[in-house]
Amino acid sequence: MSLSTRRSFLKAAVAGAAAATIPVAARGQVPAPAKTGRTDGGARNLIFLVSDGMSLGTLSLAHQFRSRRDGRGTAWLDLYRDPTVRRALIDTASASSVVTDSAAASSAWGGGLRVANGSINVGAGGVRRQPLLDAVRSSGRATGLVSTATITHATPAGFAVNVPGRNDESSIADLYAQSGIDLFLGGGAKFFDATLRSDNRDTFAEFSRAGYEVVRNRTALAAAPAGRQLLGVFADGHLPYALDHASEPDLASTVPTLAEMAGIALRRLASSGGDRGFALQIEGARVDHAAHANDFGGLIHDQLAFDDALAVALRFAAGRSDTLVIVTTDHGNSNPGLNGTGSAYGETNACFERSFGFRQTNDWIISGLAAESTAGAIRDRVKLATDLAITAGEADLIGRALRKDYKDAYRVRTSAIVILGQVLANHIAVGWTGISHTSDLVELAAIGPGSEAVGGVMLNTAVHSLMRAALALPPV
Ligand SMILES: [Zn+2]
């Protein structure tokens, strides 16, 4: 498929994200000459999107949920209709475990080196590799990080800094202030605000002194003047789950969505310094948190919010031929799946569709309960959040977990939120394998210049190499 055909396909695919029927790409057209701003065939821009902790089951469920509820698919799987999209399965292991954490996973992409879980771009013997955005900045391009977690969390940090321990997020905030990275949008005020930090260091003030515009809510973000570096921090910790965000007017009016942050980041970076090119990481972080908690409402709505941000990125790339877009995840997590239910699985669809009525996450349900909550109070709160009528016996299991008096055959299942997740599986048919990251090979898709190197089964570190090559950065 020619570039111009690919662009019209992408436009169609993105338009399909807002329409009931999805146009199928025109095929077999005469190739038109590529219109690229570069002569070396490389990428001017890189957009790297991560749905953190996204098992293949999550990708499938999001597509099925959106198809059945809204009559349209997800931008991610609709993209696969484009024959120029390249896909690979990624081996996500770290230096210390077959099962990676987000710090080691992002270091593999960001620094090209497998490190032990917990470390960010610091390998055995203290070896440090240059983070990708540092190399991108040296090439004259603009750089940015967007996340629904604390912006100092492991996945954004893996593109930006070297630190031995991922939990030292205050130090990561301090390093960001000196990094020269042009844009940060996410949560984590507790790592920047002098009144919230144990050492009382005022990192917000350091950003201001360095010339950054600092914004703290959705309105200020939309009004931020162009042409300046930007730090936007919209919560003390992580941003709220998308489902709770949408259901609570206070949150919806003050905290931007991931798609809004992505759109603003792309506009600012693309116009920064006369289109000098940019690299941007966009993370949907809380899919991982919801998976750890076996929280289906949290999971599916954050995956869909991530998909909306992906649609924004694809819309940007559809109008040009100089942008490499990569979408992937760092590892699976708890592997959710829709289980066939009833005779000949005939009750499956109705079970799944009960989840369409969820108004709040399981996190919201459990945060309003306590050890002394009665079975009646538990049933009422579950009903309020999900419209599901759980049984008295099911409420009793959750109550026992709240009182730390619950034992499961699989010993890791003890917390009240995880037991709630198992109870809801009786009603919506979505079950989980555990509460942790998994070793699954994961999906990666890429489109645009440099994507030709994607295919087969690849190590996560190979993704670093192909990004460097696409951007014509010197190899490590
Ligand atoms: Zn995790």
Structure in words:
There is one protein chain. By secondary structure, this protein is α/β, with parallel strands linked by helices. The strands form 3 sheets. It has a 10-stranded mixed β-sheet with strand order 5-6-4-3-7-1-8-13-2-14, sandwiched between helices. Strands 9-12 form a two-stranded antiparallel sheet. Strands 10-11 form a two-stranded antiparallel ribbon. The chain starts with a helix and ends in a 6-residue tail after the last helix. 52% of the residues are buried. Residues 1-39 have low confidence and may be disordered. It is 40% helix and 13% strand. Helix 13 (286-292) runs antiparallel to helix 14. Helix 9 links the parallel strand 5 and strand 6 (230-233). Residues 53, 102, 288, 292, 333, 437 line the site of zinc ion.
Shape: globular
* Biggest beta-sheet profile: 10 strands, mixed
Uncertain residue segments? 1-39
Tally of DSSP β-strands:
14
Estimated share of beta-strand residues = 5-15%
